[in-house]
């Protein structure tokens, strides 16, 4: 076998090995990245469930407070403009 043929064989073998290694490395990195996304999604879902639970608890507390307290609507009577009310500017 000639020297050029041996060099070509070694170069192509090394290149193929490098490509195979790179593909495996890239797949492993991509898998880890995808798994990190799943973990982030689970954390977001957990936080969303906690917030919804807090909201539901507050809603129930509001219902209980409304049952125990009698709140009547407040009627505000506004003075007509120019009548010397508190909102008019002094001259």
Automatic annotation (TrEMBL):
Its main location: mitochondrion. Residues 66-91 are annotated as: Disordered. Keywords: Mitochondrion, Transit peptide. Residues 70-81 have a biased composition (Low complexity). It holds the Pfam family PET117. It is found in: Mitochondrion. It comes from the Eukaryota. Belongs to the PET117 family. This is Cytochrome c oxidase assembly protein. It comes from Discina gigas.
């Amino acid at each position: 076998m000639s020297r050029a043929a041996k060099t070509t064989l070694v170069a192509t073998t090394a290149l193929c090995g490098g490509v195979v290694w790179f593909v495996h490395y890239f797949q492993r990195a991509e898998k880890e990245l995808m798994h990190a996304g799943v973990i982030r999604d689970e954390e977001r879902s957990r936080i969303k469930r906690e917030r919804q639970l807090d909201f539901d608890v507050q809603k129930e507390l509001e219902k209980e407070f409304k049952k125990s307290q009698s709140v009547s609507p407040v009627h505000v009577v506004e003075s007509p403009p120019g009548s010397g009310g508190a909102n008019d500017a002094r001259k």
